[in-house]
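ENTRY TYPE: paired fold submission
RECORD: A
CONTENT: sequence, then structure tokens
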Amino acid sequence: MRRTFGTAVAGLLAAVATILAGPGPSASAASQIRSCTELDIPVTSGLLAETMHATLCPPAGSHVGAPLQVLVAGGTYNRNYWSGLGLDAYSYSARANAAGFATLAVDRIGTGASSHPLSILVTAGVQAEALHQVVARARSGALDGQQHDQVALVGHSLGSMASVIAAARHPHDVDAVILTGYSHRIAPDQLLTSLTSMHPAALEGHALDPGYLTTVPGVRAGLFHAADDVDPAILAADEATKDAASATELPDGALLGLTPATSRAITAPVLEANGGQDAWACTAVDCTSADTLRAAEQPNFTAPLTTYVQAKSGHCLALATDGDQFADYASEWLHHVLVAGVGGSRS
């Protein structure tokens, strides 16, 4: 269920939808013909001097002046979340590229191919500062020789919390923010369930200190997915590719990233998108519809807020069977607020 932008932009959205559904490359085809680049981006924060690894993928057609989406995955996931965990049909990045956006999918510090410092030093604040430096490099042309004048932060779960902190601390960094698997109220019992489903990643053979946690085997389907809206192949890939996260990242992520005082400092338009069956973001918040989600979340923002609910999906919206609907909606919304330059509330 989605909140429409209004009749004033109906023509624009229809044109975008036609492009997305037309004879251009499908998400699978786009992922096969595009040429992505692996990057190690130096970042510093406090005592840390690390590298943030990222995959930069160009848009279909002309690359010059294309808006850039910086994609930030959630806890125990890495940048491969955005490429469908290796399953092309579920690649958010490929669909975004086909819609005319460049994408930069990052590994948060302590995940994937990024640096792994002592876990106690890795906080959501550190991740936010790293994102700020990555965006600054993108805007200056230091990433790929092209100055990206329009940048959107796109987060999932813990990555959404880091994105909120980054966009609030550095409001001139980004032109739009998309938050998924996110709301300001988390049910205590669900938080307890999540914490008791974790153990040190070292117990599964990873050469990491005990402060790096991952999910215990066999729980990811129930934590992150809705049974009626997930491909068994995604469940298998999810367990096989699961990553770790620093135990110190969640406390300040929740303290800062879920605090209304932080989110109200964001000046860019915000899209908050959740699965209606999200046990994390939608237990204490009503995600029955886009309207009920917006009613609950609008007081936490001063920036224009658009809400989207994918009724059957769980926490990992982009990996749901119908995750392509969210990916296409996100592209339509970004075309609206970036390419068309239309601000204000879309209700």
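RECORD: B
CONTENT: sequence, then structure tokens
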Amino acid sequence: MALPGTTLVSLPRRRRPKDRRRGAFGRAIRQPGAIIGIAVILAFLLLSIVAPIVSPYSSRDVSCGVFEAPSAAHWFGCDDGGVDVLSLVLEGGRISMFVGFTAAAISIVIGAAVGILSGYFGGWVDTVLMRITDYFLVIPQIVLMIVVAAVWGPSLDHVIVVIGALMWTSTARIVRSQVKSLRERTYVRRVEAIGAGHLRIVLRHILPQLGPLLAASAVLAVTVAIFNETALAFLGLSDPNAITWGTIMERAFNRAAVSTGAWWAIVPAGVAVALLIVGCYLLGRAIEDALNPRLRVSHLGLRTWALRQSAADDFARASEPVERTRTTGATPDPGTEDQR
């Protein structure tokens, strides 16, 4: 209750700085590399969606001469079967991106599950899962993919399963280290003390904290998945009836496109693969930089994924005048201290 003769004044609520409210994704997409990566990915997604509409010719029918050079009618030339290369690249991009994104999603789900179980429960669960992860880490992935794909047979479904099931190891290790840190946080310990179950703690208090980290891992996994799909298709281990960027290069290489000087039959598909990989890499690296622990970040916001500053940084700022005084030996100005 206010005393007689006094006036109650409502102080404005202190707002957090805008750069702290935007969170990890807000900080990431403002970087030039992320802007370029997003533009490249969206451009390829748009082209894959409208490919049946914008394709100048059919990707199955003959529309020009064998290894016809690029011209106004055929911008990327033609392959050994007289099929327009531009139409092949547009059609192949749809399947290659579908394989890449699907395989990356499978790998992220497996890696996140293994990492969460290992980091949360620890003990023998951690030991068993990490030993399995180590075994997959020491085996060259591309070699194992070639062996498994050769045993299962050339099929697009087999390629997706093989790629997704063999490249989850790095995600599992990263998620495990983050979960082990989150497991010891005060709010997790309090929720556990009041009787919350393991499933609720993981879904409600740990998994949301891993959102930006999983997003960065997923974007980077797409690059590896697309590269692996192209490599397997180039080696003839993908579906021979499917048109992908890898099969386009494989057919052009096997049918002497390089030796005859028809570079246009193989270069456009390779450039498309390189551009998409670079775009995904730039976006994933930008998100990783926003989550870098060296950026003085203590933890992630539960609902907004905002990056909150640690109490140690606030203490360091408060102690700067004292440290400066000790270094220079000068006496701080009382007026300056009052203004602070």
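NOTES ON RECORD B: The two ends are 30 Å apart (CA to CA). The CA atoms of residues 139 and 166 lie 10 Å apart.
STATUS: closed
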